[in-house]
Amino acid sequence: MTPPVHLAAQLAVNVLDAQSLLAAFGVLGVGVVLFAETGLLVGFFLPGDSLLFTAGLLCTGTADHGVKLSLGPLLVAAAVGALAGSQVGYLLGRKAGGALLARSRSARLHEGAKRAEELLERYGHAKAIVLARFVPVVRTVLNPMAGALDVPVRTFTLWQVVGGLVWSVGLTLAGYALGSSVPNVDRYLLPMVAVIVAVSLIPLAAEVLRSRKAAKAKGAGG
What we know:
Number of helices: 10
Mean pLDDT: 78
Structural class: mainly alpha
Order of helices and strands: HHHHHHHHHH
Distance between the termini: 72 Å
Number of strands: 0
Shape: globular
């Protein structure tokens, strides 16, 4: 039976704060949050990037928050949550189409859907599916959008696995590596999370710049 104090702590968890989520639910919480963020439209607000990075940091035991996670189970939970969530989101999109988004009144969610569709059109299925993993909100809505737009199942599955592993395992190991090498790293956790989120946007920014240069070159040549 769950002790009343521990149960109260879980009920009081702040779902927007990575440390609060990890303190309440541990490794299991990582898998559940990533599944919800990537597979269910209601999870678009969840802190996937910072959660992965913070969880990796807490595996080193250097952070003074009373939370210690195991790296092996964490990597498994992160990968399973991210991959299973995306596949479920894709299947929901194939069955429900645009009805899922039509029911939502969230301007942020609709903006994310627009960006997801632009990614698919501009970069093609493979690049868009991988790049979307690193963009908050877009990684939530691209999966059902891909299903609704009839992206082939094999294509989606292959590239969502590639992108999902790079994102989930990569950010977790980044947190673990920094936590292992920097003394008292928990003092700098918030700015480091901000940096890692910014760095995660580099692949998308690089693709945007490459696309613009290609468009200018084509225009000049025409």
